[in-house]
Amino acid sequence: MEGWDPSTQSALTQIPLLSTRAGPRDGAAWTQRLKEEYRALIAYTSMNKAGDNDWFRIAAANPEGTRWEGSCWYVHNLRRYEFTLQFDIPVTYPATAPEIELPQIDGKTHKMYRGGKICLTVHFKPLWAKNCPRFGIAHALCLGLAPWLAAEVPILVDSGMVRHKDDEASSTEY
C-alpha cells in the first residue's frame, strides 16, 4: 500500500480480505467463497454509505453467482453520470480478476476493450495477482473500477463523448 493516498488505504483496510481459494467449478468451496464475497461487498457498501460516498449498486444476476449486474455512477461538475455495470466471474477465479464491463460507453475511450470491458491490465491485474485469493469483487470495484471512473469520466464528459441524461433529453426535437 506504499504510495497510495490515505483514503484508498483507509478504504482497503476496511474491506475484509477473503480466504477461500475457489472458483465457480468448485462446488461447496465456491459457495463458501460467495459468502465471503457478499460479506466484503456489504462491508464496502456500508463504509461508502457511512462516508457519503455511495457510488454503485451490484447483485448476482444468477443463483450460481457467476454473473453480476448493477450500476455505478460518478459525479463530475455536480452532475451524476450513471452507467450499467456487469461482469462474469472467470472459470479461473480467483486467480483471474473479473473483467468489468460498462457497455454504455463501449468504444468511447481507448482505455476499454471490445464489449465495454474497462482496461485494468497495467495497474490493477498485477495487484490482483499478488493478493490472490485475498482480493474479491469489492476489491476489484475499489481498486479497479473506482480509479478508472475517476480518470476517464471527466475526460469523456469534457470531450463530449458522454453526455448527461438531462442534456440528452433537452436536445431532443419534437
Automatic annotation (TrEMBL):
SUPFAM superfamilies membership:
UBC-like
> Could you tell me what this protein is called?
Ubiquitin-fold modifier-conjugating enzyme 1
Annotated GO biological processes are: protein K69-linked ufmylation
InterPro entries from the entry?
UBQ-conjugating_enzyme/RWD, Ufc1
The UniProt GO MF terms for this protein read: UFM1 conjugating enzyme activity
What's in the keyword line of the UniProt record? Ubl conjugation pathway
An example Gene Ontology CC term for this record? cytoplasm
Q: What does this protein do?
A: E2-like enzyme which forms an intermediate with UFM1 via a thioester linkage.
Active site per database record: 119 (glycyl thioester intermediate)
Q: Does the keyword Repressor apply?
A: no
Please give the family membership noted in the entry.
Answer: Belongs to the ubiquitin-conjugating enzyme family. UFC1 subfamily.
Q: Give the organism, scientific name.
A: Phoenix dactylifera (Date palm)
Q: Which Pfam families match?
A: UFC1
